[in-house]
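Hey,
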Amino acid sequence: MADIDIKALMGRLNRTSTRALECAASWCVSRGNYEVTVEHLVHQLLEDATSDLACILAHYHLDAAAIDAAVLETLEGMRAGNSGRPVFSPVLLEWLQQAWMVSSVDYGMPDIRSGALLLALLANPMRLGSGTYLELLGKIPRGDLKQAFLDVVAGSSENSGRAVTAGPSSVQGGEIGDKPASTALARYTIDFTAQAKAGKIDPVFGRDNEIRQLID
């Protein structure tokens, strides 16, 4: 994780993924959890009925509500009672990095969609997550989805009109370029990156009024 530019990685999230991460972080604070985890983000992504993820679940006839219930069950087992500021889970950051590789290398996409996040999660479910929701998501045939991805998500709200191809990315080796991070998340990742380089973990969020600024 030390070599990851966290600010730049956050800047690769598309609008849907950015909004979901902002909500996941705010929700983590309200629950008193100590880390913003994969499950916090999965729950928020499931809230969007027009996303890549929603299209994929519908295509494979999976019940989004049942998956979300399993995610919530996993979250209930997480340590709570944090009155301070939570941090981004290292596993969450690893997931985002793997999703960026899926987006850039496999599809030549300029940003991280919820569908890329799902493909990355399906590739390494036991490493990136925990709980029965993974068994439900595991019913999705990853190879089939990877091949038919663009067709499956054709009706997604995440299609911004940008042409995407199923070939190699023009981004060299999946490196993260200079696309600006979202303003909201950037405010909370600059110090995190600096602290990470110093061998420390800097909390992601501050006071309640700063949380409101994040999600506004």
